[in-house]
Amino acid sequence: MSLLERRAATASICPSDAARSAYEGDDDGWRDLMEPVRRAAWRLVEAGEVEVTQAGRPAVEGETRGPIRIRRARR
Q: Are strands 12-13 and 50-54 parallel, antiparallel or unpaired?
């Protein structure tokens, strides 16, 4: 959420942005955090905090394959 708060209200982030931010090493170890980041994003969707999008449209958990973006929920 802190990554989104530092961006414009309509901006989105890639899950890799969150993984890189959480990873403290200098190598590609952040990639191991991608699945936990995606799971966290879906929990935030359930809480009404964010939306997960694919190709600019809201995505549905379990139906997405490929790149996704995370943005603040539109209220």
A: unpaired
N-terminal to C-terminal alpha carbon distance within the chain: 16
Can you say whether the dihedral through the CA atoms of 63, 69, 36, 28 is positive or negative?
positive
Q: What is the pTM of this model?
A: 0.91
Question: How is the chain split into domains, by residue range?
Answer: 2-72
Q: Is the Cβ–Cβ distance between 38 and 24 less than 8 Å? A: no
CATH T-level assignment (fold) for domain 2-72: Arc Repressor Mutant, subunit A (1.10.10)
Contacts of 48 (CB under 8 A, 6+ apart): 73
User: φ, ψ for residue 40 (rounded to 5)?
Assistant: -65, -40
Q: Per residue in 26-45, pLDDT tens?
A: 899 999 999 999 999 999 99
Q: Which residues contact 17 (CB under 8 A, 6 or more apart)?
A: 3
